[in-house]
Amino acid sequence: MGPGNGYDVIVIGGGHNGLVTAAYLGRAGKKVLVLERRKVLGGAAVTEEIYPGFKYTECSYVCSLLRPEIIRDLDLPVHGYQIVPVESTFSPMPDGRYLYRGGDSEENRRAIAKFSKRDAEAYPKFGQLMVRIARLVKPQLGMTPPDIGSLSPGNVAKLLELLGYFKGADEEVLTTFARLLTMSAADYLDEWFETDVLKGTMSASGIIGTFLGPRSPGTAYVLIHHYMGEVDGAFRAWGFVKGGMGMVSESIASAARAHGVDIRTDADVRRIATRDGRAVGVELADGTRIEARAVASSVDPKRTFLAFLDRSELPADFVRGIEAYVTEGSSGKVNLALKELPEFTSLPGRGEHLRGSLSISPSVDYIEKAYDDAKYGDFSKRPYLDCLLPSTLDPGMAPPGKHVMSIFVQYAPYTLRKGTWEERREEFGDAVVETLAEYAPNLPKAILHRQVLTPWDLEQEFGLTGGNIFQGELWPNQLFFLRPVPGWSQYRTPVKGLYLCGSGAHPGGGVMGAPGYNAAREILRDWGLGRP
Question: What is the model's pTM?
Answer without folding.
Answer: 0.92
